[in-house]
Description:
The chain has helices at residues 5-12, 18-22, 30-38, 86-93, 123-127, 153-158, 175-183, 192-200; strands at 41-47, 53-59, 66-67, 73-77, 97-103, 110-120, 139-143, 146-150. The chain is α+β, with helices and mostly antiparallel strands. It has two domains: 5-158, Electron Transport, Fmn-binding Protein, Chain A (Pnp Oxidase, Chain A, Roll); 169-200, no CATH class.
Amino acid sequence: MPTDAAAQLDTLYTPPHPVTVAKCLDHVDPHGRRFIALSPFAALATVGSNGTVDVSPRGGGPGFIRVSEDGKSLLMPDRPGNNRLDSLRNIADGSGEVGLMFMIPGVDDIYRVNGPAELVVDDALAATFAEFGKVPKSLLRITVREAYLHCPKALMRADLWGDSHRVDRSELPTLTEMVADQIGVALRAKTHAEEVEGLRETL
């Protein structure tokens, strides 16, 4: 990237609207609290010790991520996954900075939260986050530095909740088939329905 890249950006784009700048808050307000309470999905971005970035999907029942009474922090349970622990290791070993992007099915608006995170291991607190018959082993506490509603244009362009770009699952090989091809190892063949059923048992 050229050293004058930032200056080039300023010549390509007009300054943001004052409202776009002013809407960034240092806490989750009542509108953000309601948005998070309705959201069953968030994308979590973390930064590793070497500066590399990882983005991981997070899901649960609506409101699976909780907002503190003062709106200054969030608590997010860690659900069973593949045990790579990329996000958790980035937080433990890296800067701790995270970015969250909340989405609600059927709603094109997005809610974003940025700030430092820390791992919390508290059995009693974790028990209050039990879902799918499981208690999380750890939680993330995110201190809110920035919280704001995001323009819906990206989801509108994607028609994410509509049918114009909807693809039948049969258009792709099964997950097992794709991974087997990628790593060059023969894995037991499963239908997509079998994969889904197996995953449901480990939610």
